[in-house]
Amino acid sequence: YGKNTIKFLRLHKEGKKDCVKEVEVCTHLRLTSAQEYLEGNNSLVIPTDTIKNIVLVLAKKNGISSLEQFAIDICNHFMTTFCQVAYVKTYVQEVPWQRLHEDGVPHIHSFICVPDGIRFCEAEQCRNGPLIVFAGIKDLKLMKTTQSGFEGFYKNEHTTLPERHDRILCGELFCKWSYGECKDFDFNCIWKKIRECILEAFAGPPDCGEYSPSYQKTVNSIQMHVLSRVSQVQVIEVVLNNTFYNIVDMKNLGLTNEKEVLVPVEAPYGSCACTLGRKKFFEA
Amino acid sequence: YGKNTIKFLRLHKEGKKDCVKEVEVCTHLRLTSAQEYLEGNNSLVIPTDTIKNIVLVLAKKNGISSLEQFAIDICNHFMTTFCQVAYVKTYVQEVPWQRLHEDGVPHIHSFICVPDGIRFCEAEQCRNGPLIVFAGIKDLKLMKTTQSGFEGFYKNEHTTLPERHDRILCGELFCKWSYGECKDFDFNCIWKKIRECILEAFAGPPDCGEYSPSYQKTVNSIQMHVLSRVSQVQVIEVVLNNTFYNIVDMKNLGLTNEKEVLVPVEAPYGSCACTLGRKKFFEA
Amino acid sequence: YGKNTIKFLRLHKEGKKDCVKEVEVCTHLRLTSAQEYLEGNNSLVIPTDTIKNIVLVLAKKNGISSLEQFAIDICNHFMTTFCQVAYVKTYVQEVPWQRLHEDGVPHIHSFICVPDGIRFCEAEQCRNGPLIVFAGIKDLKLMKTTQSGFEGFYKNEHTTLPERHDRILCGELFCKWSYGECKDFDFNCIWKKIRECILEAFAGPPDCGEYSPSYQKTVNSIQMHVLSRVSQVQVIEVVLNNTFYNIVDMKNLGLTNEKEVLVPVEAPYGSCACTLGRKKFFEA
Amino acid sequence: YGKNTIKFLRLHKEGKKDCVKEVEVCTHLRLTSAQEYLEGNNSLVIPTDTIKNIVLVLAKKNGISSLEQFAIDICNHFMTTFCQVAYVKTYVQEVPWQRLHEDGVPHIHSFICVPDGIRFCEAEQCRNGPLIVFAGIKDLKLMKTTQSGFEGFYKNEHTTLPERHDRILCGELFCKWSYGECKDFDFNCIWKKIRECILEAFAGPPDCGEYSPSYQKTVNSIQMHVLSRVSQVQVIEVVLNNTFYNIVDMKNLGLTNEKEVLVPVEAPYGSCACTLGRKKFFEA
Q: Is C13 or C281 the better-scoring residue by pLDDT?
């Protein structure tokens, strides 16, 4: 296959205000032919320069109403224009520009980059197959300072980890979900709702939180919550990269440290991941 | 000199709520002695492990009411405890954890990382000299989609840049300022006010903005605005790393692109920087 | 599944000389159970801390004669020790320490890091399935200053790329191959031979090189060369990330630039990849 | 001041062989004027686009016989061409392409990137001042597996570090030195000699090494060795970023680990640095 990545900015007006979408688009193509590899015959090869031009032309003509719609447009274009394309996948990721506000007043043309979780999507299609749309959020860093533990795990002669019922839970979250048939979805609205669900399930109620007995259970809670609240989601994958924090032992320094000063442990580094679909969910 | 970097988390309660400060502290020491370099005599050397312990103990004992106060505490400790220290500098940088909110309600113990500009500070002192405190913000990415140009510059046979009166102004901002005598400053409050001043000066009024004839002038506007509004600031340094955006030429593709689709130019990469002090300001 | 990454150094003596292996080991486990996700029941969960301990204990007991043998040892340990493990995959990557030489004499205990391509391997096993071993090289940056072109490709209204018969070919290579049944392989020796084959196929004969009509053909040449020379390789995947170089147009500056000064084009960025197996090879 | 960074490749022939220099050039200018900052008057501003053009034109016209000569050419050009330039500094860094060899035969046009220490240089000049040339090496990662300790350091109530006489010494080295009057220097030859001196002083004799009582002493040994062997060096600065390795305690796992398995300690992270000049050296 061949791959091309292009980053660009699409500017348009909504009334008097400037709107800006900066995206990175990565397009994968797999051709039906093999002659370019085996014989050096390039007659069916679509240069990355052409892929780039097509992405830019579609952005100019269609605009970017949502990342998902733009990815769908690109897939459709390649499938309908080039019969030598056997498979196309388009990944679109957003630079998180937000409009600046001064004393609550939105600025007409100024923006600030706020990377508190990056929105992305993916559309893919095999020739004669359905177009499948995924969306997701990545690089979302979250922390709970309490209401997290890890006890009752499997033990043998290589176990040195003590049981803990009050630890820090901190990690970087990656979530990716697929939509079913995408008829008339408001992708922007659904995405915002899912982001809220993720935060709610991670944190629990604002006044007391919810106890997490493991990273695994927190991953599952996020998946269950999204599936139960957002009917358009078919399958959801969650990966949680853990950052562990150790309470600094200050006995040798003559002090008692009761979960006040902690240092992040860079190694060992762990993550846990799970993919949960709607059927499995209802069967469980 | 010797240098040590330690990253840690300081947790405390404010009423029922958990509060969290995660900081990276880098401490530089220069000793009065040279024997450790010339003779391998370590008798005056303070191991980095000891520096680390001291930083952690001070965090435990004093807490971190502000980055600046914590940096001052560290400098004071090293100057008063070790007579072999000729110079100490402490740099403190914050991990931008923000409390999560659900429907406007603050969560009791859950946080999200929002890196829209990183707060840092620096305190330094030579033996027998004053303690000087700096504060700053870095990695602050801003964009204006209009109200920016660059015309009337110097031209010779190597000039190929066209004049432009409506370009994108985009860049990453670094600001660092020094305070005078730091008696009873509310460092957290002042820092927030300066951040607001920076955004105001960059963007101009929310309804129309303000024309920027160059990156240089924007840098200067930020400096002037901060100096005029925040009396505690003595000297302010601003560096603006530019990201240029080129309008994609779509003539060969049969389209007219009027500042709708642009690509960032990764090379050449430029920046402009200026340091402005209070006296210079009033004399200018 | 759960994942753990640990980086460590294994030191041993060969005669009077110190030998050093610094590796990063990433172990993935998938359990037969789901109760840890669904119910928060941790009784079958193997903590990442235990995984880390096991990797370190195996390094201490067995040493690291080759990355591949070490990965095999880890997989075997998890499969035979824990009946709740449904699948294990171990990735091992080397820090490329090389012994220092002074005037051709090898130093007894000093090393330099030379990252001209990073060696890695992977071993994976499903319960009741065979143990499969992969090896590879990544981050290998290569350049040909001539004997490369790209002509005769597919053209339509979105094509703007000119045909070229003398361009720079530059890229970062990733190669990963699988071994069949690994009885008594000398993994270190085979890996070195494959690395040589890759370089030979990329560059062609030292006195004249070999013309590359496309990145695709170069990828295929590498695969064919390795498969024909190294009988232990079953399947080989090659990914070549392209860096394009544009000849700087100096007409406006009054100069003729004949492929003397070129700038790398960071966007658009492309890559091409192919996986080739032995059967497919002989059938082609 | 204003700054511009440009990365490019300079290709030329030596006999039948292709030679390649890929460099990143960063040019700083400070103007005599302040009107561009204060008034938005750009009439003396040299656009970064023009700076880029000049660097490329000089590369085309003069070639890059050495990084240092190229940096000198750039400084000279700016000082003699633009009277509004008060100060110019040019930093040049090399992409470490090395010619490929097959069975010892050098390839006519193929190269591999080998980043075992990056060569760089700097030339700077104030109007009416001398042109000063620096050269250096950075990102040079070295390790000694023995012949290193740290004992007899300063101790107080915050000391927890045990004394050690056989530890790993590992770090990333940065060296930068200045030349005096640069009449007819063979910069490439001198640079290679200094690199050798650095490695010799770090490692000691190949058969037995040399004991290092501290990072500080190793830094000093490198400086002394370079100053004594290379008369053209006036002042040398060395920074050594330490990576500490801890011997894994395996008592709880029923094993005795005698400096066989070690893990790198990512925090606390330290470095030590020293600048040593010729006069100070002879007086010491």
A: C13
Cβ(A42)–Cβ(C150) below 8 Å: yes
Query: Per the CB < 8 Å rule, is C114 touching D114?
Result: yes
Which two structure tokens, joined as six digits, stand for C162? 């000119």
Alpha helices (H) along chain D: 35-38, 48-62, 67-81, 187-203, 215-229, 278-283
Instruction: State the Cα–Cα distance between residues D271 and D251, nearest whole angstrom.
Output: 31
For residues C169 and C244, what is the distance between their CA atoms, to the nearest angstrom? 7
Please, which pLDDT band fits residue B182 given cuts at 50, 70 and 90? Answer: confident
Average pLDDT over residues C192-204: 98
Task: Give residue A282's pLDDT.
Answer: 42
Can you give the pLDDT at residue B43?
A: 96
Asked if the C-beta of D249 comes within 8 angstroms of chain A's C-beta atoms, the answer is: no
CB–CB of B143 and A113 under 8 A?
yes
Do D3 and B272 count as a contact with CB atoms less than 8 A apart?
A: yes
B204 touches chain A (CB under 8 A): yes
Separation in Å, CA of A103 to nearest CA in chain B? 10
Q: Which tens digit of pLDDT belongs to each residue from D124-172?
A: 999 999 999 999 999 999 999 999 999 999 999 999 999 999 999 999 9
Which CATH number among 3.10.270.10, 3.40.50.970, 3.40.718.10, 3.10.150.10 corresponds to the domain D2-129? 3.10.270.10
D140-281 domain in CATH 3.10.270.10?
yes
* Closest CA of chain D from C275, distance in Å: 23
* B246/B259 Cα distance (integer angstroms): 9
Which segments of B are annotated as binding site for 5-hydroxyisourate?
48-49, 150, 167, 216, 242
* pLDDT at residue C271 in the model: 80
Chain A, window 251-280: residues with a beta carbon less than 8 angstroms from a chain B beta carbon: 253, 255, 257, 259-264
CA–CA distance, B43 with B37 (Å, rounded to integer) = 12
Residue D21 CB contacts under 8 Å (≥ 6 apart), including other chains: D9, D10, D64, D94, D97
CB–CB of B267 and C264 under 8 A? yes
Q: What percent of chain D has pLDDT over 90?
A: 88
Q: Which residues of chain A have pLDDT under 70?
A: 267-269, 279-284
User: pLDDT tier at D283 (50, 70, 90 boundaries)?
Assistant: very low
Kindly identify which residue of chain A lies nearest to residue C218, measuring between CA atoms: A37
Q: Where are the domains of chain C?
A: 2-129, 140-281
> pTM score, two decimals?
0.94
ipTM score here?
A: 0.94
Of C112, C205, C207, Cβ closest to residue D141:
C112
